Amino acid sequence: MKIASIELYELRVPLKKPFTRSKKIGTLVDCTPIVCKLITEDGLVGIGETNPVMPLTSEDAAVVIHIIREYLAPAVLGADPRNLHDIHQRMDAATSGWSVPKAAIDLACYDLLGKSGGLRVADMLGGAVHERLPVMWTVGMDTPEANAEEAAAMQRQGFTSLMIKVAAGTVEQDAARVRAIREAVGPDYPLIADANQGWDVLRAVRFARLVEDCGLALLEQPVPPDDIDGLAEVRRTAGLRLSADESVHTLAQARHLIEKKAVDVFSIKVIKHGGIRKAHAIMRYAEAHGILCLMNSNAEEGVTQAASLQLGASTSNLWPFGHAYRSPLRLAGDISTFSDHIHDGWVSLPKEPGLGVTLKPDMLERFLIRRHTIPKS
């Protein structure tokens, strides 16, 4: 089996409503997913996706397209997509870094590998530990009253936990929002605060003190990504479990975080790690060192979410309270069949081989900006 051509679809998908995160990250009004189709010489098609979201990623859509067209596609055309080791060696030899563009090809290769063998990706990763997983909802910056109303509505719909974006206003304003949400959802509903790098150590600890009676289950990425000593200090003094998101892209960073005893949880995003292969390595390393994994997302369409679900379903060291498999529900439409698997706050693992989802041509056309075809030379 050889890769004969690659098709790229640049999309722009509006959010149903603006989503405000920390002051450092800003407000999101749309997302720009890129769908990748790998077509083999015998006509089998594997689908992948990647999701540049600046400033959380170092690439925008134009850069992703450029890197794939000029460097990654020439490296993998003619290669066997089932040999993931060779595919990643080719991509890494063509250009260092650039995990976001490489993820699109990685996902499509896993989809092809599964389809060619009649297996789900979760089965190829060692087997499904879970056939369904709980889904977490996320609320962006708003008034305490609006956040509390949304949180209660999502709880009634069955979502099993809630992530609260903080660090856009003052620490006191954030604490007031958390308190209003806690009152709305009751004492036992798991709440996570995500600061998206927005604080220093002092403000993170102050926030923890202000909400210590709210029973937060987790505080995510309170300080900038490179401040690992700061993460460790917050963990020691704040009395909360900590999660690393922007601080953990690579296996080397995961090792450093564990050595520093900086966090309790890794926030896993398939795209930031460069695809399923490298995300899986980080998750296995986390398992060996007693670190839990929270399956998280940026603004993603359903193909990326399907890849994340295959990973999560094959993992035993998962955060127990819910995972971010709700991204397409925030968007104007899902370009895939992924959202069909979400019911009452849970997502079920598809039965079909590969990533287990198909594209919806009408939705792809609705959000399409431009299409690129890269044939084998």
The coarse silhouette is globular
Query: Beta fraction of the residues?
Result: 15-25%
Order of helices and strands: EEEEEHHHHEEHEHEHEHEHEHEHHEEHE
Number of helical segments with 4 or more residues? 13
Low-confidence stretches: none
Instruction: Round the mean pLDDT to the nearest integer and report it.
Output: 96
How much is the radius of gyration in Å? 20 Å
Helix percent band? 25-40%
Give the strand order of the largest sheet, numbering strands 1, 2, ... along the chain: 7-8-9-10-11-12-13
Number of DSSP E strands: 16
Would you tell me the structural class of the helices and strands? alpha/beta
Main beta-sheet strand count, sense and barrel state: 7 strands, parallel
Compute the separation of the termini in Å. Answer: 17 Å
Main features:
377 residues, 4-stranded antiparallel β-sheet, 13 helices, 21% strand
Overall description:
By secondary structure, the protein is an alpha/beta fold. Helix content is 38%, strand content 21%. The chain contains 13 helices and 16 strands. It has helices spanning 61-76, 84-94, 99-117, 121-124, 144-156, 171-185, 201-210, 228-238, 251-259, 276-288, 302-313, 327-330, 361-367, and strands at 3-11, 13-20, 27-31, 34-40, 45-50, 132-134, 136-139, 161-165, 191-194, 218-220, 242-244, 265-268, 292-295, 342-343, 346-348, 368-375. It has a seven-stranded parallel beta sheet. A hairpin with a 6-residue loop joins strand 2 (13-20) and strand 3. Helix 6 runs parallel beside helix 7. The two termini are 17 Å apart. The model has no long low-confidence stretch (mean pLDDT 96).
